[in-house]
Design goal:
The protein is α+β, with helices and mostly antiparallel strands. The protein folds into 2 domains: about 45 residues, Uridine Diphospho-n-acetylenolpyruvylglucosamine Reductase, domain 3 (2-Layer Sandwich), CATH 3.30.465; about 110 residues, Enolase-like, domain 1 (2-Layer Sandwich). It is built from 5 helices and 9 strands. The protein is globular.
Length: about 170
Amino acid sequence: MCTASPCADTPPALYVLNADVIIRNAQGERRVPVSEFFKWVRKTAVQPGDILIGVVIPYPSKGSYGTYVKLSRRKGSDLSLVSVAAFAYPNGKEANWRLSLGAVAPTPLRVPEAERILGEGTDESHIELAAKAAADTSKPISDVRASETYRKLMVANMTKRAVRTTLERREKGG
């Protein structure tokens, strides 16, 4: 968390769960939404004299489901080339959605346009539109691990995978 590496696995999941971090210093504690914690590559809300002492994740409402998918060159603990966290929580018969991307910008990104699209429906056309919105929102770089173009294509593909997996879990009830 405190290294604020764009390819870290935990931050996208914490974004969709609306988590907060607790930071302590000699003057006391403060609670910071995770969406305000990451400032830039390797920069966080932690200041000199601060220490991150905890992460608070609100308990999801009954009927909430989520998925985290990651693309890396090797299985296991390799650095993410692209990651997507998807979370659906109940809203009557439908669901509200939260999507977050990792490793495709200086900080994790929420994708409000894709969330809005999925809130309108989760048929294949809506999933395709949401995936395009996610790819358009991403701001990847080209480096020795992958090109910008490849990462954008993978954002779209992995968004579809994360949404479909979340829907399958929701339908099965677990």
